[in-house]
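Pipeline run #58 for the internal structure catalog. This entry was flagged by the ingest filter as a single-chain record with no existing model, so it goes straight to prediction. Upstream metadata was stripped on purpose; only the residue string is passed forward. Reviewer on rotation: M.T. Logging verbosity set to normal.
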Amino acid sequence: MRRVIITLGREFGSGGREIGKKLAERLEIPFFDKEIIRKAAEDSGIVESVMDYYDEHRSSPIFSSGSILYDIYQMPMSDRVYLEQCKAIKDIASKGGCVIVGRCADMVLENNPALLRVFICANMKDKVERKRAVEPNKTDQQLEAHIRGVDKKRAKYYSYYTDKKWGEARQYDLCLNSSLLGIDETVNLIIEAAEKLEAKLNK
């Protein structure tokens, strides 16, 4: 059974989810993206639609962490959702090799020796083209604005919960531009790194 856990940070429209699915298929390990929301909802009792609403989205805290009133039932729902997702991610990783997309998984599992942390970016032109396939009626300007907006939210979410900079090379083991070689060759590079880590773990 494979042990390597691949976490994928990704810019919106970079093909990160497609890359993650292909990695999981090629390596024959489970793939987790929205599935994390489903698992976290089931384990916590929080309604899945609420989980989905706050997924990778931070609300403003009402109570300070130093307040005696600040506890699991009074913290912002976004924080509760994040904590439940962390539990789900750790449980998933404890079962062996897998691919996990987003949700600060690289930091949640940072001390796991089987972890391969990957970040996927892409040229804006390619990201716009990829999003146009699902939103053909929008202009390039509208699509680009949407992409920048989503990435800005992801960066704020990551920074808030990890105190690190989203997309910064030192936070990852591999940072790859999917525009350079395309989706399939990007997958090949990650698989090569994963197999080297797997061999190291098995020594």
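catalog note: The beta strands are 5-10, 31-32, 98-101, 115-121, 174-177.
catalog note: Residues 140-162 form the longest helix (23 residues).
status: ready for reviewer M.T.
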